[in-house]
Automatic annotation (TrEMBL):
It comes from Shimwellia blattae (strain ATCC 29907 / DSM 4481 / JCM 1650 / NBRC 105725 / CDC 9005-74). The gene is ydhA. PROSITE patterns: PROKAR_LIPOPROTEIN. Pfam families: MliC. It comes from the Bacteria. This is Putative lipoprotein.
């Protein structure tokens, strides 16, 4: 009996790991808001996770995840290359200190 249990233990632990991963993904989705912006150049969809203090969006076929940083006004997220800065219902996206998405107006926010 104990030998069968020892053989089954790795399988059971793998199952626990799988469900833990699903739970983590589920919880991230609960704490993530989807923000729809209309910028001068094009629309922008931003996923904001306040628990992780990060935003995620796709720009130029790149999936970008930016961490929240220090801002004198509004909220600033950066990965050292890209910056997403928002204040109220407006946002701007920078690439190496150059504006690439300007005058982004919040259209909708949903959880």
């Amino acid at each position: 009996m104990s030998r069968k249990l020892l053989l089954a233990l790795p399988l059971l632990l793998t199952g626990c790991s799988y469900y833990n991963s699903l739970y983590s993904h589920f919880m991230d989705n609960i704490h993530t808001d989807t923000l729809q912006y209309q910028c001068d150049e094009k629309p922008l969809t931003v996923r904001q996770n306040n628990d992780r203090q990060e935003v995620n969006f796709i720009y130029d076929n790149k999936n970008l995840t930016l961490k929240q940083g220090i801002s004198a006004s509004g909220t600033r997220y950066s990965d050292g290359i890209y910056v997403f800065w928002s204040k109220g219902n407006e946002a701007t996206v920078y690439y190496q200190d150059r504006v690439i998405l300007n005058n982004c107006q919040l259209q909708t926010a949903r959880r």
